[in-house]
Amino acid sequence: MADWRWRPKEGRDNGFSLVELLVVVIILGVLAAIAIPLFLSQRAKAEDAQTRHDVAVVGRELSTYWAEHTTAPTVLLVSTWAADERTWHLLPNGVSVITAANFESTLIAPVSRHVSLDLSGSTDNAMWQASGTGRTDWCFWAYNPRGKEGGFWITATTGIEGTNGDPANKCP
User: What's the whole-model pTM score?
Assistant: First the structure.
């Protein structure tokens, strides 16, 4: 009976040929060319989601504030240097300083990384005075230089909207 097992020819190397290696390298290059841009756009989308979340949280607090008050509040972005934390605070009209006594009572939520209240993208302390004069015409805006949208705003009447990549396109 004949032996049907395949055997390499005598004296021939068992490695891959140059053509086979080039095909594998080209396939890996094509896959990398597809995957890297997708990964980078996902990071920008995640930054936008963080900014949108922060704007929504502050917007809910502003809605609650306007339901109980008639004067414009101040929103502070406070950085604590010791703990490397940043937090949103909502201060009633006439209060412009965070103290140990009112730190917890004015706290809204932690601030997501890279979210800012100014176009420079600074993550330092910042203050935002509510625009508008009442329950139906206020607007709050935040900026994230690493996101695709650039920033988001929320108003009492229209909800959250993006800046469409133009960070100077703030509250209408």
Answer: 0.69
